Amino acid sequence: MKLIIPKDYDPKLDVIQTQQAIRYIRETFQDEFGKELNLSRLSAPMFVEKGTGLNDNLNGVEKPVSFTMKDMPGKTIEIVHSLAKWKRLALKRYGFVMHTGLYTNMNAIRKDEDLDNIHSIYVDQWDWEKIIAKDERTTQTLEDTVRTIFKVIKHMEHEVWYKFPEAVHHLPDEIHFVTTQELEDEFPTLTPKEREDAITKRYGAVFLMQIGGKLKSGKRHDGRAPDYDDWQLNGDILFWYEPLQHALEISSMGIRVSEESMKAQLKDANAEDRAKLPFHQMLLNGELPYTIGGGIGQSRLCMLLLGKAHVGEVQASVWPQEMIDKCYQHRIQIL
């Protein structure tokens, strides 16, 4: 268990006021975000059938929560890790057209998560996906989309300041773009997380690009499943978070794999057996649209905008009693 206790922490808002702020942020952000990216809100599953290839494998080692159900004997059902692949299939199934897309409230369980100030076994995020043309699978498309999302987050800062002026955490005015290889070149002796902290502290807000593939050192900056993001066209939105003195990831996103890039990445990840799964077969056969998409953490965004010290202050989850007790001693109000 890792826990950071900010010195002289002041939560600003009590529990009821915090709940009011959470509701305001969640309702307001999703409406503005949907309008800016031309997305429609859809309902989404909390679980999918094992063997369809739809669940997110994350780093390939995390095991999803699974169960069986009475009316589907012999079938295993899995709680989703994310909806990264489900969304792309949904765009085809529901007949979305070019430059339109969807967003949904995604709730997941990641039981193997290491708990700390910003990690919980309960995941709540806006998962989103949008159709683009194949020739729009470019760095420019990715960066333009990141700037749009950053603009909405900045606008939310002003909205929250208007309603809860004593609580708002101020954000930088611009976002800086950098690749994982550029970070390794500049900070070769630091770990990947230390590099993220160093660059995010310098600029305030960073979009860290090209996550998943091997760097010149032969190591990977971080793990990424090989079958949804194109590792050359993806990244994370990071903010320097003063209360905890490290980078805070708000979004993981990217242009999704083409037939060619998924083949290459499956081979690189020694996961070519996944190509036989139904979702992967559809993609390889050219039956799915080209898309860009990602997830934006709902609790993380509330935490960022309200300057909270622990994600448990903005979501109800399960925590070790030792962590709850220590937080309580330092005015960190775990829900």
UniProtKB/TrEMBL annotation:
Any Gene Ontology CC annotation: cytosol
Aminoacyl-transfer RNA synthetases class-II family profile domain mapped to chain residues: 23-320
Cross-referenced PROSITE patterns: AA_TRNA_LIGASE_II
Main location group: cytoplasm
Catalyzed reactions per annotation: L-aspartate + NH4(+) + ATP = L-asparagine + AMP + diphosphate + H(+)
The protein's Enzyme Commission number: 6.3.1.1
Superkingdom assignment: Bacteria
Keyword Mitochondrion carried by entry: no
GO molecular function (one): catalytic activity, acting on a protein
Pathway, per record: Amino-acid biosynthesis; L-asparagine biosynthesis; L-asparagine from L-aspartate (ammonia route): step 1/1
Compartment(s): Cytoplasm
Segment forming the signal sequence: none
Keyword annotations from UniProtKB, A to Z: Amino-acid biosynthesis, Asparagine biosynthesis, ATP-binding, Cytoplasm, Ligase, Nucleotide-binding
One GO biological process term: L-asparagine biosynthetic process
Family: Belongs to the class-II aminoacyl-tRNA synthetase family. AsnA subfamily.
Name of the protein in its database record: Aspartate--ammonia ligase
Organism: Levilactobacillus namurensis DSM 19117
Encoding gene per record: asnA
